[in-house]
Each structure stands twice: as structure tokens, then as C-alpha cells.
Amino acid sequence: MKVSAEQFEKLALEQMDTLYRVAGRLTRDGDRAADLVQETYLRAFRFSHRFQPGTHLRAWLFQILRNTFLTFYRLRERESALAEDGVPAWDAPMFHDAPEESSGAVEAHTDLERALRRLPEEFRTVLLLAEVEGMALEDVARVLACPVGTVKSRIFRAKERLRGLLRDYTKE
Length: 172
What we know:
By secondary structure, the chain is mainly α. Helix content is about 70%, strand content about 0%.
């Protein structure tokens, strides 16, 4: 059974907030995130005939978003000016709702954000999709076009690297 263009559009647009949130975390810039989401939807609508009903539309859209980001936006990230700590100067906080009760909490979140940014893209993306967005491992595997075992391994390795980068906090 084929999904009509109207049905596809309705279902796809229901994912816009989630796609924009992920795009914002990937690009670290509101305008770039909006451009990324727009390009994602242009591609999704152009290739909607390739979407197979009964499969996970959200994962399919995330895959388009990720591939588009890697194709167009990752190069810009590499070219941007870096601060002394290696973090792009234009970066915005990843945890917008971080508690600001104490300077220690703010400092901890800032250090976590910096540590996440230092992770290789494949580790950062898998954590973003699985841990932050709460996607099922099977869906993350579809987005990344890899086996579920690879997703589990990347999550484990990403968390190990984060532990190493944040070892000062594990002592407290």
C-alpha cells in the first residue's frame, strides 16, 4: 500500500519540532538548524516515493537530516574559528534547560557540553539520538545505516570517552 502525498506530508511535518531540536544540536546555530530542517524536508518530499509504508518515518527523516548535515554542514564546522579550548566560538549551549541553581551546576553542564563536542561525530550522533532523543536502538541503527551491535558499541565507547573527559566530576 502506498501513502498518498497528503498523508506523507502530514506525517512528516509532525516530526518538525524533533528534527529542528536535533538540527539545533548538530549545527549549534538557529539559522543553520532552520536551513538544515528545510533542506531535509525538501529532500524528504522529493524522495517520498522511496519511503516504504510500515517503516519508521521518524528514523527515515533523521537519516536524511544526518546525511544532509554531514554533506553540507560538517565542512563549515571544521572551518569555523576555534577558541583556545577547541570549541567553536559560535557554539550555543546544548542543554538550554540546565539548572542554574549554582555556579557549580552551570560549570558542570558547560564541561559536559565541551566534552560532548570533542567526541567524534559518530559517537556524538549516537548519544544524541539514543540518549537525548530517546530513539530505540533499532531506529538509531536505521538512521546510521549500521547494525544494532555497532550502535551499542558506539554508545558504550562514547560514554567511556565522556567519563575520561569528565574524570574530575567522578571523584566528587
